[in-house]
Write a structure and sequence with these properties.
This protein has 109 residues and is an all-alpha fold. The chain has a domain of 70 residues. Helices cover 57% and strands 0% of the residues. Helix 2 crosses helix 3. It is elongated. The protein starts with 16 loop residues before the first helix and ends with a helix.
């Protein structure tokens, strides 16, 4: 009989963010998105587990997918913030209300 290892916040799968944190690696000093916390990953992994019908045996896959989704959302949020800042700059300069507006203004009517 084989047993499937369970993943928990206390014992996340090896090779993940948790392992790097446990090894004492310093946080990244880039201006990119911050690393997801173990709690965020655990909550997302649980949501994935439940969405997949609470099927056991996919702990590592769920954990890694949760990490990937959180990082992707952070990047999307950062990109949206950058676009908003560009829009605000265009408005301040009085050149256009947004990049999208400039493209729309050139479209034939």
């Amino acid at each position: 009989m084989s047993t499937t290892p369970r993943v928990s916040i206390e014992h996340p799968p090896a090779g993940t963010l948790a392992e790097r944190s446990a090894a004492g690696d310093p946080p990244a000093t880039t201006s990119g998105p911050s690393r997801p916390t173990l709690e965020e990953i655990a909550q997302e992994a649980y949501a994935i587990y439940m969405a997949n019908g609470a099927q056991d045996g996919h702990d590592l896959d769920d954990w890694l997918e949760a990490e990937r989704r959180i990082v992707a959302r952070q990047k999307d949020g950062q990109q949206a913030t950058t676009e908003r800042q560009q829009d605000e700059r265009y408005v301040r300069q009085g050149t256009a209300t947004s990049k999208r507006a400039r493209v729309d203004d050139s479209a034939p009517v």
